[in-house]
Amino acid sequence: MKYVDAGYAIALSALALYAVLLVVRRRRLERAVITASPDPGVPRVVEVSAGPEALGAAGAEQPAPAPRPGGEPR
Amino acid sequence: MNRPPERGLLSPRLIRAIGALGLLTTAATVWLGLWVTPPDITQGNLVRLLYIHPAIAFVALYVAGGLAALSSVLYLWRRTRTMFWDRLAAASVELAAVFCALTLITGSLWGRPTWGVWWTWDARLTSTALLLVLLLGYMALRRVPAEPAVRAKRCAVAALIAAVDVPIVHFSVDWWQTLHQAGTILNPELDAHIHGSMAWTFLLGFIAITLDFVWMVAMRYRIEVLADLVGDEELEVSLAERWAEGGGPAATPVPEPAAAAAEGGRP
User: Fold this and answer.
1) Does ipTM exceed 0.85?
2) B242 — phi, psi (to 5°)?
């Protein structure tokens, strides 16, 4: 059984570790976005329910180019 | 600075529900696989590894690999080209690499007592290892500094090159004489060689790992969106600092044609 136990232990612990890392990375980035936001405390990223139509719409939301301080964007 | 809010891949409530369901089904698979199902006549207790190994391989190859390929095609196709597909492909590829590595590890742990070796240059094993290398190559390519659109296009092409290996992995057991056995269910005759509680546990393993993948890909996609936003913020801050150092926007050197255009003249 040692190979079986090792297989389950490695697979499940790796997946659990990866899941924890995802949560940590997400929280760290969320904090960074809130800190960098011009209005602190208001996150620039909000989560809304997304159906199949929203999947496409979400992708369309590319960040618009920031206006240059030197004048209107051309 | 006024930008529309970015959306996640799925709603937070749905992500939480999928995560909980994934956790529950994974726990049930482990309980059934390790304690409830009987040992196999020929493989003995080693059959228990097959409740997770094929499920992980299925997600790595067909679910994550398929999603990465589909997203890349949709990015490369002009009509559907948005950063959504690029981010989804990036999220899928990273997960495909994680699941592909676990496929090789769990397979090796099954192969050692069954075949007597940790590794052999078998067609199925070699093509799977090649897929992992290609996926790691995609991830390395993504880190190469470039314009977002250029990076997305390069990566989409790299994902499609990696995707060519997926059917090779699948059919390797049919095309070549291999040590690896043919599919238990996905064989040419589509004849399931597994029955009873073993079959149900096998199926539950597929559902559990797929649910885990869906939760992870939703989380990973959100990280991609956040990372892009943070990158943009940093760029804006550094540009503002540059302009401030140069004595304000008025002192910013403007290329001649652009300056002429700004003044209303012809460039």
Assistant:
1) no
2) -60, -45
